[in-house]
């Protein structure tokens, strides 16, 4: 599903973000990416959804060779990857419903499909009743749920979540984790970068630790392994 | 593209105009200001052109005939001049009419000086007034008339006059005025683009996040462009419509309030019919183009994510 062979990433300013990363993430895995700030977690995530390209090495996602992907093919690869951010990234002027449905308009789904599926995922994230609210009227946890609904509305095979609970209080964070578990249970691969020790140590999954751009630990059912 | 997607783009583009209320307002504002200045100068240029044409149209050729030319000959020359393609109208001015006109041009006190020159004492020759379609061609037509004379053994034409020298100078001036007008209008159009590009830069900043999110969920570039395109056209066309309305209303007011005073000075503004369609049409097309240009530039910069 996601395969990295000897991946290097050097930014134009000379910063080496990743060096010789080798990893395979299989279909329907749930993986935590942990490590100190600036270790290269975000770069690792960005490579998967092709916001960045590797400087060296072979990277394939869903069978696509990301390094050699043609510009016009990028949108089609992204449609199979749902991305969730710490800061939600909702469009402030659209309602919760529109924020989700527009991801389906992008793939030119029919009107009926859009209405049915959007309500379905809003129901799944427990916010059907807030469909008409704009982001400013929603709490942080609710906004993140809408962002997750947008990420899954097109049935992607992978969800890439970069610190999805980073801005949320512990209780709300657990709600989000329950939701991600549910989505994982329904058959979606989940790659989640996090600083949340409690979550990683309680909800045991595979843990990949990145430090100074290299993978220093990769354990099935691992622990967070850092203080804080 | 599906038809429903096209409808979606138009709907989204229209909604975006309202969603980005202030930005749309600012963009429209800069389009209105730019087009307004441009429009004022266009109206000015149209009037200068009209004035120049009015002056030019007073240029005529006067063809004098030899004294005692027979009527048959006169008719023949009349026909020959009429056959020249550039000639609009030939009017015969008999020596009697010529004297009458001369009298009318004189001061009433001085008119008596011409007493006694009537009838057989009339020293004036018969003549033709020749009007030309394009006044800039008078010199050319005058030459052709002279050629008629040369081909006739009797040499019935005494002289051809059209204000040689003065006419050439007049055309130099009117052409220069027209060119300056054109340059000013072109310069203003460029200035308008700069003014609008500043607004575009502001919208870019406001929109980059939106474009980034659209790309993230897998929108193709053309999918992203379309609503922006629709939005740009709407803002441009609406801005141009507002500008045209203001300009034309103002112009009709100007015509109404000054028609009496200026009428005395024999100056006439270009009429609403002359100006209205041209100004509104040009501004609408320009507005649409400016809107498209602005939205295209603002999107293109952030499409390469």
Automatic annotation (TrEMBL), chain A:
PROSITE patterns in alphabetical order: ABC_TRANSPORTER_1, ABC_TRANSPORTER_2
Locations listed in the record: Cell membrane
One Pfam family hit: ABC_tran
Role noted for this protein: Part of the ABC transporter FtsEX involved in cellular division.
Subunit text: Homodimer. Forms a membrane-associated complex with FtsX.
GO molecular function per UniProt: ATP binding; ATP hydrolysis activity; transmembrane transporter activity
InterPro entries: AAA+_ATPase, ABC_transporter-like_ATP-bd, ABC_transporter-like_CS, ABC_transpr_LolD-like, Cell_div_FtsE, P-loop_NTPase
Similarity remark: Belongs to the ABC transporter superfamily.
Keyword Phosphoprotein recorded: no
Keywords: ATP-binding, Cell cycle, Cell division, Cell membrane, Membrane, Nucleotide-binding, Transport
Protein name: Cell division ATP-binding protein FtsE
Residue intervals of the ABC transporter domain: 2-228
GO biological process: cell division
GO terms for cellular component: plasma membrane
Naturally occurring in which organism (per UniProt): Cohnella zeiphila
Membrane topology designation: Peripheral membrane protein
Main location: membrane
Top-level taxon in the UniProt lineage: Bacteria
Keyword Membrane: yes
Automatic annotation (TrEMBL), chain B:
GO cellular component, one term: plasma membrane
Transmembrane feature ranges: 21-46, 180-205, 226-255, 275-294
Keyword terms: Cell cycle, Cell division, Cell membrane, Membrane, Transmembrane, Transmembrane helix
Record's subcellular location: Cell membrane
Segments forming domain FtsX extracellular: 59-148
InterPro entries reported in the protein's UniProt record: ABC3_permease_C, FtsX, FtsX_ECD, FtsX_firmicutes-type
Residues annotated as domain ABC3 transporter permease C-terminal: 183-296
Key word DNA repair present: no
One of the GO BP terms on file: cell division
Membrane topology: Multi-pass membrane protein
Main location per the UniProt record: membrane
Pfam families to which the protein is assigned, alphabetical: FtsX, FtsX_ECD
Function: Part of the ABC transporter FtsEX involved in asymmetric cellular division facilitating the initiation of sporulation.
Family: Belongs to the ABC-4 integral membrane protein family. FtsX subfamily.
Protein name stated in the entry: Cell division protein FtsX
Organism encoding this protein: Cohnella zeiphila
């Amino acid at each position: 599903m996601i395969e990295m062979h000897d991946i290097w990433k050097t930014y134009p300013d000379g910063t080496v973000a990743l060096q010789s990363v080798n990893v395979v993430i299989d279909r329907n895995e749930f993986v935590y990416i942990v490590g100190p700030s600036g270790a290269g977690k975000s770069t690792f995530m960005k490579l998967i959804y092709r916001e960045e390209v590797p400087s060296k090495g072979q990277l394939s996602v869903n069978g696509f060779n990301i390094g050699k992907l043609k510009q016009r093919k990028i949108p089609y690869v992204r449609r199979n990857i749902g991305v969730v951010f710490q800061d939600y990234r909702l469009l402030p002027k659209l309602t919760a419903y529109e924020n989700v449905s527009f991801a389906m308009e992008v793939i030119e789904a029919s009107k009926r499909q859009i209405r049915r599926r959007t309500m379905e995922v809003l129901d799944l994230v427990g916010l059907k009743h807030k469909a008409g609210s704009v982001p400013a009227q929603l709490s942080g946890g609710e906004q993140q749920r809408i962002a997750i609904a947008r990420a899954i509305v097109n049935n992607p095979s992978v969800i890439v979540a970069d610190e999805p609970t980073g801005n949320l209080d512990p209780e709300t964070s657990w709600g989000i984790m329950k939701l991600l578990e549910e989505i994982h249970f329904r058959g979606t691969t989940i790659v989640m970068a996090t600083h949340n020790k409690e979550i990683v140590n309680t909800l045991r999954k595979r843990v990949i630790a990145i430090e100074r751009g290299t993978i220093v630990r990769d354990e099935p059912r691992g622990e967070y392994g850092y203080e804080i | 593209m599906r038809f429903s997607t096209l409808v979606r783009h138009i709907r989204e583009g229209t909604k975006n105009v309202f969603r980005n209320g202030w930005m749309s307002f600012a963009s429209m504002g800069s389009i209105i200001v730019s087009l307004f200045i441009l429009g004022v100068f266009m109206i000015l240029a149209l009037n200068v052109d009209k004035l120049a044409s009015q002056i030019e149209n007073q240029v005529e050729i006067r063809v004098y005939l030899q004294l005692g030319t027979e009527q048959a000959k006169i008719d023949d020359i009349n026909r020959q001049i009429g056959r020249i393609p550039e000639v609009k109208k030939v009017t015969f001015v008999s020596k009697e009419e010529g004297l009458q006109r001369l009298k009318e041009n004189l001061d009433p006190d001085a008119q008596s000086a011409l007493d006694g020159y009537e009838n057989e004492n009339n020293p004036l020759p018969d003549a033709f007034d020749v009007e030309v379609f394009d006044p800039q061609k008078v010199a050319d037509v005058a030459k052709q008339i002279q050629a008629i004379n040369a081909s006739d053994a009797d040499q019935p034409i005494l002289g051809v006059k059209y204000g040689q020298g003065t006419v050439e100078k007049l055309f130099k001036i009117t052409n220069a005025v027209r060119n300056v007008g054109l340059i000013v209008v072109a310069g203003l159009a460029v200035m308008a683009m700069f003014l609008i590009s500043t607004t575009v830069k502001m919208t870019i900043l406001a929109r980059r996040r939106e474009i980034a999110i659209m790309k993230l969920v897998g929108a193709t570039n053309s999918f992203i462009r379309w609503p922006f395109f629709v939005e740009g056209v709407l803002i441009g066309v609406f801005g141009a419509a507002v500008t045209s309305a203001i300009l034309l209303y103002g112009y009709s007011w100007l015509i109404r309030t000054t028609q009496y005073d200026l009428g005395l000075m024999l100056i006439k503004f270009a009429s609403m019919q002359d100006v209205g369609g041209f100004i509104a049409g040009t501004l609408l097309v320009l507005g649409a183009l400016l809107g498209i240009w602005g939205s295209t530039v603002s999107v293109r910069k952030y499409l390469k994510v």
